[in-house]
Amino acid sequence: MGAPLDVTVLAHGVGGRTDLPVPLWMAIYGAGIAVVLSFAALGALWPRPRLTGEKGRALPRGLAAAIDSPVLVWALRALVLAVSGLMVAAAFFGAPGEESNPVPWFLYIVFWVGLVPVSLLFGPVWKVVNPLRTIHLLIATASGSDPDEGLREMPAGLGYWPAAASLAGFVWLELVYPFRADPRAIGLVLVVYAAVHVVAASVYGAGWFARADGFEVYSTLIARLSPLGRLPDRRLALRNPLDNLAGLRAEPGLVGVVAVLLGSTAYDGVTRTQWWKDVSEGDAFGWPQVPRATLTLALCVGLVAGTYVLATRLSGRPAGADPRPLPGAFVHSVIPIAIGYAVAHYFSLLVLEGQQAWILASDPFGKGADWFGTAGWTVNFTVLTPRTTAVTQIAAVVVGHILGVIAAHDRAVGLFKGKAAVKGQYALLVVMVAYTLGGVALLLGT
Predict the structure, then answer these.
(1) What angle in degrees, to the nearest 10, is found between the helix axes of 131-143 and 70-93?
(2) Closest C-alpha among 329, 321, 300, 378 to residue 8
(3) Residue pair 434/329 in contact by the 8 Å Cβ criterion
(4) Of 39, 177, 182, the residue nearest 100 (C-alpha)
(5) Are 412 and 315 in contact (CB under 8 A)?
(6) pLDDT per residue over 318-360, tens digit each?
């Protein structure tokens, strides 16, 4: 992006069109056709809602008890808290540059990108091990107060808007801020972020984290597509991920959270295009780079939010339904799309550049240590071929959209009756196809 301190850790690079086993145009149109065909099949074969959000097969009691064991939970919480503390210390007292400091690599790759596969496999793990929850609990215990009871109730209608703001701030740091790889800047951001949320939790109770901590909310939303979930009686169970997804309740701010996630990956794709390189190297509109990039990021998020809200509100017209609650009713269907884009954009970053985090972890303070015996390692870039990367990217985008179409269709046939259920999805289908075509083009185009 042409900014100071841009390094490999931030160059979310992917293969270009020459890496594809088929021409780029064929990949783009094939992805769009796959989404349309899935919609047509659902219209013919899925006439009534099947996803209840409550089904599942409970795990054996012994296994469930072991997973929920306080010993295991507290061991994980202590480990995550210790690693978090070490990273903050390394940010302030380690090497000043990202080439020798593991903090940028751990934050942007191991943590941010790694949350996706971990949450998909094991459920909302960050809610369990969140170090901010641990700090808040320890403070509450020391002061003799109930961590779940705050000094006042959270404002009515607040919903997930604080989480949307938290995530917007983080993606701005990751994608726009020129010194995003500076360990000192990262350390300051982490300390301020932790202080704000811990203080807010002391005012509103531990429930604040579930609505305001962007990382916890992100992990929890991803976990909606995990096969591991909980039944209404809180027992651990294996579940159809789409059933789990359908159980998400519409609340204020959820659309904002999803728009930030999807819009930021769209912005990341835009910044790889030749057009953006020309804009960045030139003096577009006479604006400095940071305001220009900030505006572009905001426009990408706004475009995603605007097209989604418009399409969902139009979906109720054939049935004469009230359009106001419809964006919230269908918001769960955008989560698989956001996850698909996240996997497509960043999985290669996790596999390849993520190795650098573990290499630098052996010497977090730049003193010549070799704690884990990895200091002499080098990144192995041969574990992924460009073709494998490109095919995986297309598959992630297409599968994410197909799952989104299924979730939206199931909700539509539950809300609307007869032909109105199918007709109402036309606008949303157009938006999803546009997301698919645009997403593949931005990922693989040059």
Answers:
(1) 110
(2) 378
(3) no
(4) 182
(5) yes
(6) 988 899 999 999 999 999 999 998 888 888 889 988 999 999 9
pLDDT single digits (tens) 10-59: 444 333 334 445 566 666 777 788 888 998 999 888 989 999 877 788 99
The answer to whether the beta carbons of residues 242 and 403 sit under 8 Å apart is yes
Q: How far is CA 361 from the centre of its chain?
A: 25
**CA–CA gap between residue 194 and residue 213 (Å, rounded):** 9
Q: Which two tokens stand for residue 107?
A: 């934050």
Considering the entire predicted model, what is its pTM?
Answer: 0.90
Q: 245, 258 in Cβ contact below 8 A?
A: no
Place of tokens 């349309």: 36
Instruction: State the Cα angle at 203 between 198 and 209, rounded to 5°.
Output: 45
HEC secondary structure over the chain: CCCCCCCHHHCCCCCCHHHCCCCHHHHHHHHHHHHHHHHHHHHHHCCCCCCCCCCCEECCHHHHHHHCCHHHHHHHHHHHHHHHHHHHHHHHHCCCCCCCCCHHHHHHHHHCCCHHHHHHHHCCHHHHHCHHHHHHHHHHHHHCCCCCCCCCCCCCCCCCHHHHHHHHHHHHHHHCCCCCCCHHHHHHHHHHHHHHHHHHHHHHCCHHHHHHCHHHHHHHHHHHHCCEEECCCCCEEECCHHHHHHCCCCCCCHHHHHHHHHHHHHHHHHCCCHHHHHHHHCCHHHCCHHHHHHHHHHHHHHHHHHHHHHHHHHHCCCCCCCCCCHHHHHHHHHHHHHHHHHHHHHHHHHHCCHHHHHHHHCCCCCCCCCCCCCCCCCCCHHHCCHHHHHHHHHHHHHHHHHHHHHHHHHHHHHHCCCHHHHHCCHHHHHHHHHHHHHHHHHHHCC
